[in-house]
TrEMBL record:
Tagged with keyword Nuclease: yes
Matches recorded under CDD domains: DNA_polB_like1_exo
Keywords: Exonuclease, Hydrolase, Nuclease
GO molecular function: exonuclease activity; nucleic acid binding
Record's protein name: 3'-5' exonuclease
Superkingdom assignment: Bacteria
Domain Predicted 3'-5' exonuclease PolB-like: 47-260
Pfam families to which the protein is assigned, alphabetical: DNA_pol_B_exo2 (PF10108)
Organism encoding this protein: Parazoarcus communis
Amino acid sequence: MMPTLIFDIETIPDVDGIRRLNELPDDLSDFEVAEFAFQQRRASHGNDFLPHHLQRVVTISCAMRDASQFRVFSLSEPESNEGQIIQRFFDGVERFTPQIVSWNGGGFDLPVLHYRGMLHGVSAPRYWDLGDGDYADSRDFKWNNYISRYHTRHLDLMDMLAMYSPRANAPLDDLAKLMGYPGKLGMDGSAVWSAWQEGRIAEIRDYCETDVVNTYLVYLRFQCMRGHLDAAGLASEQAVVREALGRIGAPHWEAFLAEWTET
């Protein structure tokens, strides 16, 4: 079984970068610097969603399924800084060469990791292999790599299900709930910055972890739809997830399992 790695990132405004680019005075608080950037963005784009290169990564959560187990983990502040978080993610790609699965990873998560990784001197040769690398199987990467939109070594599930048409995109939360999965619990991406300012870093990590498990469960339905799993295989894989989350015993997984109505 090829390892499958589902991932999601959470970000906050890069207040240091915003200060530098706009030559803002040092006595402005982080909140004021971020508000300055939000107001600029609203004036220019009609929303306060900052550009990818000004998104500072504070958590990457992952769900890993291989032949032996299913596990969920996070690379997160304060245990690691941004550069270490991103490097450890790409180190995992280097070590396992997994299929990676995301929800809008091609539109947001990976471009953010590209820009922020370069800022920190991150190395990711396996990830960037387009068939010209020094690995024994590099030739295969010409036809199926992590970068090309229509390859499946990175599967942006949202993008593929929408037939690569943004007008057809569906929210992960809606789709998960329609399938009987919990969906988002207690937080969404718009609340991350305020949670960060209040020191609720663990809640951000927990939210990100539940997002990757929702993504994995929707991915299992996709695998069933395209004939890679039958009904018995789907039920078996879902049971593996339930058992793994139950063993962790953390409050956010107890809440997640309580909301999981699909059987």
